[in-house]
Amino acid sequence: MLNLLDNFRETGDTYEGFKEAIKEISDATGNVRFYPTDFEILSAGVGERAGKEFLLCLNKEILEDFYRTLKLGSGYSVAITENNKELMEEMKSTTNLMVYVPFGSGAGDKFFVSDFAIPTLAQRASIMGTQTLTSNSIIRNMHFAEALCSKDAEKEGINFVYRKEGDQKKIFAAMGGSYSLIPQTILCDLIDLIDKESTLGELKVKRWAITHDLTGVQIDFPDAKVELKTSKGIEKDLTPGIALLNSDIGTSSIIIMSTYRKGKSIIIGNELAFKHTKMLNIAKMKEEIDNTILADIRKLPETLIDLIGKPLMDYSKVDVKSEGGKYTNRMFVEGVIDELLDSELKGSITGKKLNSLKECLHNEIVSDTCYTAFDIADIFLAIPERILGVDRYVKEKVAKACGRVPYSVLKAIDKVAKASEEKVVLV
């Protein structure tokens, strides 16, 4: 169930649950345009007494007076209630910020300000720096209040994206004057259209997650599952799917990616991104998804099928049961793995993690096994689930890199073979 705390997170594994959750957050989301004279910045820090939290008002007149007297004058009080108690505690430990509307149609409204809003608020104020984004002090808030009275803000206004729960409101983004709020239910519109016109069989929502800054849903096409076999006769299932991501607070555009599920690993293929504009058209978006994502979604499984049975080297000349043959085989397999790590994954993860991964893959080589090109691809398709302790952006980069490997395996094998220049020990 939706709440306004920054750590809100809801997950599930059914489409019905996803539709309900995304409708709830979309219904709770609003967009209001303010100009600098329409609102005032409030900064916490005065303290609490008699069941009220007192905040300093940092409007233009008060700031001008401060520069003359070095004193901050009047403030506002906010009654602490059961409805806002947790939000108040969170605000005092994060942004120390509220926005107050002194007059107009929203006169008397007070908005909490989320930590998620700070980067876009800094953009609107044309200020930057780590200290600005993390200090959460009254000095930083004074800087915000002064800078938000810029000429650009006076001309275009600021579109505050907020969510409402009961009588409480909280700002999650401060977007530019041309920003258009696109309801997150657009993801459901796309999913319904994809399902209706699918040539891949019935779709199944595998999992979804909604937070205040990002919504994501993973769809599988189980009817399009492909069964693959390694050289050891182990069956490996590859299930095509689509991942959809969206954010209404500037974290992400609408992103559609082709995905492939192998065990616990998710491999990423092609990707499309749509900016949030009034010009978005569901039918045209679906057409682009058809041409860019769905048209090529069988390409990876077909490539993997082509790799099955293609030996890494001429094993008729190498006895992998002998010590010399084992050594030759291991060196060649290591060479191909290293070539693919350097050509595809380098840059996706740090050098330390890359070296650690390389060591693990080397240790798992079975020297007396006749490897195929598919076996090598299969090794890399399992990597995403092994990368731990990194953020989602790194995981996504690794998943994309591993998705490129099957198309590069044969090239890597040829390169290693040429580099060895007939140095293979014939046993």
Domain tally: 3
- How many angstroms does the end-to-end distance come to? 67 Å
Report the structural category. Answer: alpha+beta
Compute the number of strand runs: 15
What is the mean predicted local confidence, pLDDT?
88
Count of helical segments?
Answer: 15
Main sheet properties: 8 strands, mixed
- Tertiary shape: elongated
- How are the strands of the largest sheet arranged? 2-8-9-7-6-3-4-5
Task: Give the uncertain stretches in residue-range form.
Answer: none
Percent strand: 15-25%
Helix content: 25-40%
Q: SSE string, helix = H, strand = E?
A: EHEEEHEHEEHHHHEEHEEEEEEHHHHHHH
Radius of gyration: 28 Å
Topology (SSEs and partners):
Layout: E1 9-12, H1 15-27, E2 29-34, E3 40-49, E4 52-57, H2 60-69, E5 75-79, H3 85-93, E6 97-100, E7 110-113, H4 118-125, H5 130-134, H6 138-147, H7 151-156, E8 158-165, E9 168-175, H8 186-196, E10 204-211, E11 215-220, E12 226-229, E13 235-246, E14 254-262, E15 265-274, H9 282-292, H10 299-307, H11 323-345, H12 351-363, H13 373-381, H14 392-404, H15 409-420
Parallel strand pairs: 7-9
Antiparallel strand pairs: 1-10, 2-8, 3-4, 3-6, 4-5, 6-7, 8-9, 10-11, 11-13, 12-13, 13-14, 14-15
Structure in words:
With 427 residues, the protein is α+β, with helices and mostly antiparallel strands. Helices cover 38% and strands 24% of the residues. It is built from 15 helices and 15 strands. The strands form two sheets. Strands 2-8-9-7-6-3-4-5 form an eight-stranded mixed β-sheet, sandwiched between helices. It starts with 8 loop residues before the first strand and ends in a 7-residue tail after the last helix. The model has no long low-confidence stretch (mean pLDDT 88).
